[in-house]
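ok here's the first one, seq then struct tokens
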Amino acid sequence: MLSERRLEVLRAIVQDYVGTEEPVGSKALTERHSLGVSPATVRNDMAVLEDEGYIAQPHTSAGRIPTDKGYRLFVDKLADVKPLSTAERRAIHHFLDGAVDLDDVVARTVRLLAQLTRQVAVVQYPSLTRSTVRHVELLSLAPARLMLVLITDTGRVEQRLVDCPAPFTEGSLADLRARLNSRVVGRRFADVPKLVQDLPDSFEAEDRGTVSTVLATLMETLVEETEERLMIGGTANLTRFDHDFPLSIRPVLEALEEQVVLLRLLGEAKDAAMMVRIGHENAHEGLSSASVVSVGYGAGSEALAKLGVVGPTRMDYPGTMGAVRAVARYVGQILAES
């Protein structure tokens, strides 16, 4: 276990290196921070930190930089999540309040996160499999053709055309709409099939074929969107950190193009907790010099999806974690109120 003083020295090294981009020496630390000890003592503490693998010497200069292990200890023990300023909170409200639908919410969230953190922002769409039904609308387009509109609790809207085996009257349509909504509104998608399986039997014989066709289309809609959707933005921000990637930023850019990789990076959507993956903790080789900060968001207490940022390991972790958490909370509020 490191002593409190050595933890403070590590904290100071991380803060200075993130802020200056320059390896940090003992003389600079004692000048910039009130550590209460001499440069010689700080040099000794830095030697211990280096032996333990928390900092490293990038070249022959006297300065040291944090390692992945050092950043991990900083994030786990030393980093207080930085609260957003009044201006930043106002910017979040102003930027997201005008969103008109779910696609707009996600697009605005990506742009906002990229601007706030100056990193690459990634936002996962709320999954249909974790959604509940808000409303099912049935509209008559022709005597034997309907439109089914499924609206989820996250504001997602899915539309399908239904070609009926026989004409369906407006009265029968209104009856089906009412009975269907009475059974499925507020229920999880996974529960819907068993809730409506006996619904055709409650209709007159001549309408049962159409009711079954409508229900089959509804079932297809519930399971059709199995592929997770993502939106990414701010990739150009990586060019500002070109020197932070030992070889080039190309492996990072290639990794960001793979949706499966990004979903794995964000983590399981049902886990709403803040997650920080640093450098070699990322399984994908191309991201060994990058860090990922992500958190779940949703309407209510359960996370429906994840959002986060990808950037170099030399990252302002307290500020990034604060921004990611604040945006996730606000997006959750929008979904809850929509």
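and now the second one, same deal
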Amino acid sequence: MAGTAVDSPPFYCPIESAIHPQAEEAERRALAWVHRSGLCRGDAERARFAGTRSADFYSRFAPHADLERLWITACWVYWGFAFDDARCDEGPFATDPAAFASMAFSVQRALEVPGLLHCADPYAAALHEIGELFRASAGPVQNRRFHHAHRAWLTGVQWQIGNRATGHMPDLDEYLAMRLHSAGGEPTYAMLEIANGLDVPDREMDSPAVCALTEMAILVAALDNDRHSHAREISRRQTGQNIVSVLMAHHDHSLPQAIDEAIALRDAVLERFLRLRDLITPRASAPLRHYLTDLGHGIRGNIEWGLHVPRYLTRNNPAPAPAPQPRIPAQTAPSHWTDTPRTSQQDPRCLPSIAWWWKDLAF
């Protein structure tokens, strides 16, 4: 879908900025692993990996994590961005659902199998190594949760690729359901327990209230990424499935109207997240309180990372020069933020996929 980029309005996000004090060391260790992993073939690819600033990204999600776990979770973020670019958004798998399914679930299996495993696919081999690092750093419950979240992500991408292959533009509710999985938020947030050495009790983690809060954090970040990436997607003709494109196609919005409505819908979800989190935090265990706090850190940190990372600022995504990357500021300018949420024309409680978030949720 053709379009013209417009400047992004400020973000409503009344959550404090935070970043791990050893983010640079986590980046150094994670990039050293990337260089050993076999995924990089030359200086240009190494620079492209570094340009995702994945360690900075996750250092904002888990600002109080153990460094020995933080750098390992950052390895998965580097891997995830590379896999997303090479096999989800572009390349031969990006328009072939059957080929993607076969490849993706062999990769998933490499994550799940413990011990020695020969993988001809370099992405599967690297993910298997990450899985081994996770097994050495966290317990079986945390690893199982991550495996399930990782599988859900690949399933969401499969859905997205199927839409792309058939030329199907999802409606708003369908898009939100798909985006909850395809954005990669599930494995990203599932790693919080691994990075922090947490063990949130099942009765809390699986409660309707905490499941809703996790989904809300995922969707807010996913819609923020849609905003960050829209100009880049326009330049690369990849706007087929984006919240802005969905609103333009199904609600007859102009580009500025679609952006405004996407922001308002996202703000409504964030408002509900903040209210529900405040409601259940006083009754939460210490591990759950830490997890809920870091859900918020992830929302804020994802915005701050997205405002500076070359992934979104470079519209045509040329291979960056193999030079040292400039540091991303710990905080962003006040002009990037607003204290006032927008009002949506679309009542999110009328959207079946997410309406349940506004119900009286058990905890």
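notes on #2: The beta strands are 11-12, 337-338. The radius of gyration is 19 Å.
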